[in-house]
Amino acid sequence: MNFNNLTLEKKENVAILKINRPKALNALNTDTLLELDNAIDVLDKDQDVNVIVLSGEGKAFVAGADILEMKEKTASEGREFGKLGSDIFRKIEIMEKPVIAAVNGFALGGGCELSMACDIRIASEKAKFGQPEVGLGITPGFSGTQRLSRLVGTAKAKELIFTGDMVDANTAEKIGLVNQVVSKEDLMNSALEMAEKISSKAQLAVRYSKAAINRGIETDIETGIEIEKDLFGLCFSTEDQKEGMNAFIEKRKPNFKNK
Ligand code: CAA
């Protein structure tokens, strides 16, 4: 596939998708968002891809939604733009395959929001996170008010959103915004290592686990446990469950088929 503002490569069963507008610090304009939407659809259907690593080219992950594009928008155009980004990020969040954000630099506004739509965030020690929107006269618009508060709690989310302050990677880890902080040089290897480990497991079980966590966290625990019960039961209709358990008993490595 040819993209103007993205790069896509594959390493075995892992896809590495990068936002590639380094001159604008990978700011998300409509064209880039539409390409991202398209790329996610392609990767979702690609049977050879188990895990996606999302990152940015150059010194930024994503420095936000494109301010030049937003500047002259009317209220309804602003709403539409917010819907476009939020819909794509929700698609990433609920897609079956796991997505790891490898946050290489600035993850601000829409960039922080994009990283939060991913399942796991690994940050370079150079990364910086923030929701600076109120300094531009807007609220976060790609679901940041919702995901930041779910990830770090309402008090910290309100502090970050009301002040617009940036936090460094170590602070982001301390407040639960990122899973792991590594050196700049180790970032891609660490993300790929985790992606390959996930890719070596039974993929249907990984995907059902993602669905159980995502769906369960938005409901009461009784309903969440029901969701888990159903998905746990469904695992027993897969070939990989038989293979995983037989391999354990036969003391060998499993050979999963994603079936
Ligand atoms: N939109 C459009 N262009 C952007 C951009 C953005 N969000 N962020 C950076 N750029 C552009 C700059 O305008 C600059 O372009 P020129 O070279 O043509 O002037 C280029 O990228 C490099 O940026 P800087 O020269 O500013 O780089 P720096 O290293 O001095 O500063 C920065 C880096 C602190 C990230 C600074 O660029 C910055 O503050 N960017 C804006 C961050 C921001 O406010 N993000 C939120 C956007 S609103 C949003 O995202 C809404 C939403 O929730 C949907």
TrEMBL record:
Q: Which reaction does it catalyse?
A: a short-chain (3S)-3-hydroxyacyl-CoA = a short-chain (2E)-enoyl-CoA + H2O
Metabolic or biological pathway, per its Swiss-Prot or TrEMBL entry: Lipid metabolism; butanoate metabolism
Q: What class of enzyme is it?
A: lyase
Task: Show the InterPro entries listed in the entry.
Answer: ClpP/crotonase-like_dom_sf, Enoyl-CoA_hyd/isom_CS, Enoyl-CoA_hydra/iso, Enoyl-CoA_hydra_C
Question: Under which name does UniProt file this protein?
Answer: short-chain-enoyl-CoA hydratase
Q: How does it assemble?
A: Homotetramer.
Keyword field: Lyase
Q: What is its EC number?
A: 4.2.1.150
